[in-house]
Amino acid sequence: MDFLSVFASTDAWVALLTLTFLEIVLGIDNIVFISIVSSKLSPKDQPKARNIGLGLAMVFRIALLFGIKWVLSLNSVLLEVNLSWFHGKITGQSIIIFLGGLFLLYKSVTEIHHKLEGEESLKTENNKKVGLNSAIVQIALLNLVFSFDSILTAVGLVSFKEFGETGALSIMILSVIISIIIMMAFAGPVSHFVNRHPTIQILGLSFLILIGVMLLAESSHLAHVVIFEQEVGVIPKGYLYFAIFFSLAVEFINMKLRKSTKPVALKNSETIDKL
User: Fold this and answer.
1) pTM
2) Could you write out the DSSP letters of every residue in the chain?
3) Which tens digits make up the pLDDT trace of 145-158?
């Protein structure tokens, strides 16, 4: 099935819309991370960091889709560990996702510490300017992990048997491009909103900690890790995103109640007027 004929069927359009929606939902954590990292840059560099970060996300996802056979081959066992209390089959996928989860946990906890520390530490950090290249490297590293997670979701949703290899790849690549364009359009307003409200910054960092824990659990599940005869399971994404959206809804209600009070300014928060 070629590129044009695949979209003659209703099923292809349903798959495209569903996958695009999922890509956007799964990309929310990416936008939050990019917003928090870019907030440390000068106002003129923040849009550039956001666009480069999301552009890298699109490049990584499309590259991984073209190398989908290689991605799936990373599921082969590299090392098997058998101890009296621990069993596991280490794969390439599990290593990448595990390292990504650790990086996300480290970055989120560090950022929360920096946001809440005292004036003396604030002066020390202000002397260390975060460069655009440093921010892009951090964004690129995490984008790679999120890209693996995104592609594995896409492969599970779009059937190669139903649409053929060319048709399935066309649907997945088009959904990635559409979702990234939509996220680029909303990344600026989201970043401005996050930077303007300290409670949302802390809430966003807390979400990233949850996602880091989810990635660690997912990597352990991919490696079939068994600890004291108990296999590590995955944390359902639905539960996680429900908790995130519920917390946001509660915070929006609180913000309405506090509307007459100016929010407390955390360091590294940028005003919209400068942008």
Assistant:
1) 0.71
2) --HHHHTTSHHHHHHHHHHHHHHHHHTHHHHHHHHHHHTTS-TTTHHHHHHHHHHHHHHHHHHHHHTHHHHHHTTSEEEEEE-SSEEEEEEHHHHHHHHHHHHHHHHHHHHHHHHH--HHHHHHHHTSPPPHHHHHHHHHHHHHHHHHHHHHHHHHHS-HHHHHHHHHHHHHHHHHHHHHHHHHHHHHHHHHHHHH-HHHHHHHHHHHHHHHHHHHHHHHHHTT-EETTEEPPPPPHHHHHHHHHHHHHHHHHHHHHTTTSPPPPPTT---GGG-
3) 778 777 777 776 77
